[in-house]
# Entry
Amino acid sequence: MLTLYKIESGTLAPHAGGLDPIDDFIWIDLNTPSREEELQVESALGIDVPTREEMQEIELSSRLYSEDGATFMTANILSHTDADDVVLSPMTFILHQKRLITVRYTSPRSVTGFVARCSKGGNWSSDLLAIGLIEANIERCADVIERASAELDGLSRSIFLPPEAVTEKPGTNTAKKRKRAKTKSKPRDFQRVLDEIGLKGDLVSKIRDSLVSIQRLLTHYIGQVSSSRSDNAEIASRLKSVSRDVEALREHASFMTQKVNFLLDATLGMINIEQNAIIKIFSVAAVIFLPPTLIASIYGMNFEFMPELNWTFGYPLAIGLMVLSAILPYAFFKRRGWL
# Structure
């Protein structure tokens, strides 16, 4: 879809019509364009619009370059950010003769929100529009990081606190939570926790990918502004400010990656502890029943001369010995705190 924007009465307004006259438009947005729309823009501006395959290439020479008097910059943008199944797709910014052209194959909320904000007024230029779109995407990344961070905190509570205590307020005394959990404890669903950690890890990875690509775009953009323009002070200053924001978010995303790895290791450790507890029960049961089994085996042997077989109290004695031999190991394990 081809959408044209021009400045009308101090606001950015969409234009329904063709590209003629091309000088009237400050922003040309190509959202999942057809080949006819690409050819229309290329013919009007004299540039080659990158295809979807070219936008997805990862080498810098294919993402950040200048050609035919235009600057091409591609970054990975997050969309469908309301859930964990975030989509990471490339978006190309083309600056050509005080005009911005964007090429994208998704509809992130950051773009629609930025368009709505521009419609309320402002002093817009192609550079300010490009910076505004980048800032909108960075703000969306920050929102997703905040949500993912809160959800990771919830996962941490579900791993390290008893199930009955997870639903309580975080400020409740932890010792009391654990004491109550000893009286009634529900099994924790570590399979669900592992699934959630995997989704959060994938989400954080996509956030970092997006921030890295935006950081590279800003570095290239700052270099272009500093080397080729005289009125670059305000633009360069704003770009450097945005770059600092991206760097701060990248550090936070790196911390979240470490937390995801920690929670993954902790969950696997908890699963191992539960499995060891189950194996311990079977081991203790085997040891407890081993002496009674030995006594029963002795008196089950088919020897002709066994005095106890003809004794009146032989059977009660054998039963008593088996019970006592089972109680003694149990009492020993209980006293040592192994049960």
Observations:
- The first strand starts at residue 2 and ends at 8.
- Residues 2 and 37 are 7 Å apart (CA to CA).
